[in-house]
Write a structure and sequence with these properties.
- The protein is of the alpha/beta class and 219 residues long.
- It is built from 9 helices and 7 strands, in the order αααβαβαββαβαααββ.
- β2, α5 and β3 form a beta-alpha-beta unit.
- Bound molecules: S-adenosylmethionine.
- S-adenosylmethionine binds next to α2 and α4.
Length: 219
């Protein structure tokens, strides 16, 4: 088992669920609004990669007519996600699926929107993962993949709370949401031949927005 997978075993999943429902709670509606506002995609299928406790999936479902698939490879995360989805009364709109981002159990060209927050920093092979994402995305579809805390005010408050909880978090977060990391992902997107994408790096975090062109496939 990879170190990333071990991190989200029983204890790690419980910890992430607790943080997502408390310290991080205000960021998810803000991120969902940003995703839906920027993409303009309100219906169809949305896949949330590395969905964890599914709080972003819930916020997206609440703000749109999208059907959401929350995909994660951790069984313990699924337990938390399932409880949270049920509590939100969204069991008919959000499905939970066990799967790895590097080999996704989805047909080609099947998702209107692919989103992910705070997960790609743990992926073993970003080239394979993004080839998969592009394969699954429908022509005309969009991604919103990265990490962040909504806006400057929320980010600063959360950073203070998280550093208090765990001083090592500061370095981990700074490394993830950095120019160097953005350049690493940019190089990867160019290497796999994604024709149309934008990288956002600012107060809202670090986000990769891919628009799949109507012509489809990668070279
Ligand atoms: C920091 S948590 C973020 C959870 C959620 N997206 C959020 O923002 O609240 C990272 C999640 O990514 C999942 N994950 C990491 N690598 C994965 C992979 N290769 N395939 C599927 N899930 C993965 C972990 O199990 C964990 O639930």
């Amino acid at each position: 088992m990879s170190d990333a997978k071990k991190k989200y075993g029983t204890k790690g999943a419980r910890n992430m669920d607790e943080i997502a429902r408390t310290i991080f709670a205000p960021i998810y509606p803000v991120i969902a609004e940003m995703i839906i506002g920027m993409s303009g995609i309100m219906k169809g299928t949305c896949i949330d990669l590395g969905s964890g406790p599914a709080i972003l999936s819930i916020a997206v479902a609440q703000q749109s007519d999208l059907s959401v698939i929350a995909l994660d490879y951790s069984d313990d995360m699924h337990k938390a996600a399932s409880r949270n989805i049920e509590d939100a009364g969204l069991s008919s709109r959000i499905g939970i699926l066990c799967g790895d981002v590097h080999a996704m159990p989805f047909d080609d060209d099947s998702a209107d929107l692919i989103i992910s927050r705070g997960s790609m920093f743990f992926w073993d092979d970003i080239h394979t993962a993004f080839r998969e994402i592009y394969r699954v995305l429908k022509p005309g579809g969009m991604t919103y993949i990265g990490g962040g805390f909504g806006n400057k005010e929320l980010r600063d408050g959360i950073a203070a709370a998280m550093i208090k909880k765990n001083p090592e978090w500061k370095e981990f977060n700074q490394k993830n949401i950095s120019l160097e990391n953005a350049e690493r992902f940019q190089t990867m997107l160019n290497e796999i031949g994604v024709p149309k994408y934008k990288i956002m790096l600012g107060d809202e975090g670090f986000w990769i927005v891919i628009s799949k062109t109507e012509t489809g496939a990668l070279a």
